[in-house]
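Incident log, structure service

09:12 report received: a user says their structure output differs between two submissions of the same chain.
09:20 pulled the input from the user's history:
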Amino acid sequence: MFADLARDYPGSAYFYYLDIPFEETVRRHATREKVSAFTAEAMAEWYRPQDLLEWPRETVIDQTSSLDATVQRILRETGLDPAAELQVGDDDRLAGG
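09:34 re-ran on a clean worker, output below:
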């Protein structure tokens, strides 16, 4: 499916793999509102460490990257960061007005 998307999408396609150890995955799941939707035992059946694609290649982000850093990185790398598109003079906030 991802290979088809990368091949067929007319724009740029970006792929990210969040490399989080199983223990951390379980810990983070315990903080979610949907914690009761499935158990750690069920997650253990699905979990595949380093389950990377051969193609397209994902950018790997490990557990040391905070949520904010991860979001900012993805926005910056994909060009979706609104500030990246603004030039001085294009927006009153940047021109001091």
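09:41 both user submissions now match this output. Likely a transient worker issue. Closing.
09:42 reviewer note: The mean pLDDT is 86. The two ends are 47 Å apart (CA to CA).
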